[in-house]
Amino acid sequence: MRQWIVEHEHCPFAYAQAHPAHAWPQAHLAHLPDGTAVIDAFIGDPAMLGHGHGRGFLRHLAKMLLVEGAPVVAIDPALDNHRARRAYAHAGFVGERVVETENGLAVLMLFFSNITRLRFCAPATLSFRRNVRSRRKPT
User: Fold this and answer.
1) Contacts of 116 by beta carbon, 8 Å cutoff, 6+ apart
2) What is the CB neighbour count within 10 angstroms for residue 76?
3) 2 or 135: which leads in pLDDT
4) Alpha-carbon 107 to chain mean position
5) Are 62 and 111 in contact (CB under 8 A)?
6) For the segment 19-71, what is each residue's pLDDT rounded down to a tens digit?
7) Integer distance in angstroms from the first to the last C-alpha of the chain?
8) How far is residue 96's CA from residue 89's CA, in Å, rounded to a whole number?
9) In the chain, where are the structural domains located?
10) Predicted pLDDT of residue 14
């Protein structure tokens, strides 16, 4: 498990950790691809809430983990934690489904690279429009 203290202007305000999705058995993460990173994050200073700092560092952390090789980054906030879910959505996480965890109901939210997003979509949900008209310039 990797851990970080998050600072804004040299003032610590949050904690984040990341671990491999399959590091220990968690049924709601079993379908995720090998190498998926799962993050947990907490903002400790209430004065930092509502200013976009959470979504900013979460987006940065998720992108960093993708660059390091994770195919997907997951987070699983409690179903009734609407503020966290909004922050994660603003950071780029997409709510996949409601899941049962040992701590109760949660929403599994995923952060993808564009390539991984295509692989996660069922083929029937993808549609590609072919440009049938020629765009040649008249001569």
Assistant:
1) 71, 72
2) 22
3) 2
4) 11
5) yes
6) 999 998 899 999 999 999 999 998 876 776 777 667 888 999 999 999 999 99
7) 63
8) 11
9) 2-125
10) 85
Q: Over the stretch 76-129, which tens digit does the pLDDT of each residue have? A: 999 999 989 999 999 999 987 899 998 899 999 999 876 444 444 444 443 333
Q: What is the 3-state secondary structure (H, E, C) of the chain?
A: CEEEEEEECCEEEEEEEEEECCCCCCHHHCCCCCCCEEEEEEECCHHHCCCCHHHHHHHHHHHHHHHCCCCEEEECCECCCHHHHHHHHHHCCEEEEEEEECCEEEEEEEEECHHHHHHHCCHHHCCCCCCCCCCCCCC
Q: Which residue in the block uniquely carries the two structure tokens 């879910």? A: 85
In angstroms, the CA 40 to CA 61 distance is 11
Query: Quick one: pLDDT at residue 131?
Result: 42
Residue 88 class from Cβ within 10 Å (0-12 exposed, 13-18 middle, 19+ buried)? buried
What fold, for 2-125? Answer: Aminopeptidase (3.40.630)
Residue 134 to residue 115: CA distance in whole angstroms: 28
Task: Please count the other Cβ atoms lying within 10 Å of the Cβ belonging to residue 104.
Answer: 9
